[in-house]
Amino acid sequence: MADAPVVIIGAGQAGCQAAVSLRELGHRGPITLIGDEGVLPYQRPPLTKAYLQGDIGIGDLVFRPETYYTEHDISLVLDDPVVSVDRVARRVVLRSGHAVDYENLVLATGSRPRPIPGAHTIRTIGDADFARPEGRVVAVGAGFIGLEYAAVASEAGCDVTVVEAQPRALSRVLSEETAGHVVQVHRRRGVKFLFNACVSEVRPGEVVLADGTVLPADLVVAGIGVVPNVELAVDAGLAVDDGVVVDAWLRTSDPAVFAIGDCARFHHGARQIRLESVQNAVDQASCVAAVIQGSAEPYAQVPWFWSDQYAMKVQIAGVTDGHDNVVVTGDPLTGAFSVFCFASDRLLGVESVNKPVDHVLARRLLAANCPIRPEMVAVPGFDLRTAA
Amino acid sequence: MAKITYVHPDGTSSVVDVEPGNSIMRGAKLANVEGILAQCGGGATCGTCHIYVDKDNTKPLPAMHDLEDGLLCVTASPRQDNSRLSCQIPVTEELDGLVVHLPEKQL
Ligand SMILES: Cc1cc2nc3c(=O)[nH]c(=O)nc-3n(C[C@H](O)[C@H](O)[C@H](O)COP(=O)(O)OP(=O)(O)OC[C@H]3O[C@@H](n4cnc5c(N)ncnc54)[C@H](O)[C@@H]3O)c2cc1C
Ligand code: FES
């Protein structure tokens, strides 16, 4: 029902955008955006980039000034987490005991880092403030978070070692070609890598590996993946499977309840996936707002992602996981190239390093479902511009 | 503070006092001026903060680097001689009075 009261749980990237999009689409009823971090909604990507580096401050992280929420009549609760959802009464209860009624509920609770006892993780502003790089740094996990942290630490003059359990970096998210280049760039900056290496214990001043190796460490940061915040959904009896399961319109097993962003598991082609990206949070939020306002359009955006390390800009269009064939364009030796990832003949996505134009065009191509085949890309002088 | 005028495609405009140090993009965002998407948050990698600098502008703007030049070739609204990425122009006191036009679409 359009204009009926909406409650959004989680005032992060997705939740904040859902509230903004609802107003942009003309929702006139009450909107309550409930957060638990005690600060205005803010962006996380700079926490392992410019903010960690000290180039920008908290004021640069917030999406919108406080006046935005008052001017747009969005009730923003900053530090009172939802502790339970009563789906029969359509009511959420906050830690303070305060209750809010809804007609439509949006779960935008995000995810939290998998912890390693004794190691820092980075999800919030406070986390980043407590993990300023110093001395000998060990980053556990060669994923985006760990590598971005390693880049900032190495630029700050730290001695950096990355410990990864898999045989290579970024194995869940990037092709071997792209990931190999990223590791090379780090090595050239003096960052050391230990692959096939498991951490057995983090002690004060050192990290102990499963094979007995002891690495001295002044600061240990873990970036070994996240777990979706699904506890409220589980308690409320909604379908959950590593993420709150949603249909093509981002509805959970209860049609009055939606889930978006890091906490949602949704349909992507023939698969069900969960993504942790700004794009996913923002586009799902816009979609959910439209659905609440009566749209029948299912969610169908092309996923994309970026990561900045040193001056290197890595961008992914599509989801390249599961590819069995790649074609590289540009020249990895110059540090600017793109890797087209195919599952047999079907283009899954394109990974670009310092090639933002390729990235923008690849997104358009994927959105338009253009039939790009490996042999087309492999032709010398292939120009995405003519294909798009 | 520098006064920046953002002219919307429908001809209306928003005049914003932008604190030097912020980009033209960030200035619009902080004042809730719609029409600049800035999907990459100012990284010169998305091309969704496209603006047209007013044709009569005489104020000094920073030179364009390769990434910006490349992205301007693939923006959603067509590139013109006065096209720029607003995230790549830091506001200075000297830019007080600058007028920029927002494109029809960013995506
Ligand atoms: C350090 C870092 C760097 C990143 N870099 C990039 C990048 O370069 N590019 C990119 O695309 N993505 C990046 N991401 C990922 C991106 O930030 C996330 O995917 C995005 O924030 C997800 O949005 P969300 O709203 O789902 O979750 P969040 O932004 O995490 O928001 C969820 C909010 O809900 C709150 N919450 C949870 N439970 C409750 C409750 N019961 N009651 C009230 N509030 C609750 C949480 O405290 C949190 O504030 C990065 C993430 C991190 C942590
Ligand atoms: S904000 Fe992305 S290019 Fe300017």
UniProtKB/TrEMBL annotation, chain A:
Residues annotated as domain Reductase C-terminal: 304-387
Alphabetized Gene3D superfamilies for the sequence: 3.30.390.30, FAD/NAD(P)-binding domain
Claim: Oxidoreductase is one of the keywords in the record: yes
Keywords in alphabetical order: FAD, Flavoprotein, Oxidoreductase
Record-linked Pfam families: Pyr_redox_2 (PF07992), Reductase_C (PF14759)
InterPro entries named in the record: FAD-oxidoreductase/Apoptosis, FAD/NAD-bd_sf, FAD/NAD-binding_dom, FAD/NAD-linked_Rdtase_dimer_sf, Reductase_C
Residues spanning the signal sequence: none
Domain FAD/NAD(P)-binding: 6-285
Cofactor(s) in the UniProt record: FAD
Protein name: Pyridine nucleotide-disulfide oxidoreductase
Organism: Lentzea indica
UniProtKB/TrEMBL annotation, chain B:
Listed CDD domains: fer2
Keywords: 2Fe-2S, Iron, Iron-sulfur, Metal-binding
Gene3D superfamilies according to UniProt: 3.10.20.30
Span of domain 2Fe-2S ferredoxin-type: 2-106
Matches recorded under PROSITE patterns: 2FE2S_FER_2
Cofactor(s) needed by this chain: [2Fe-2S] cluster
Similarity-based family: Belongs to the adrenodoxin/putidaredoxin family.
Name of this chain's protein: (2Fe-2S)-binding protein
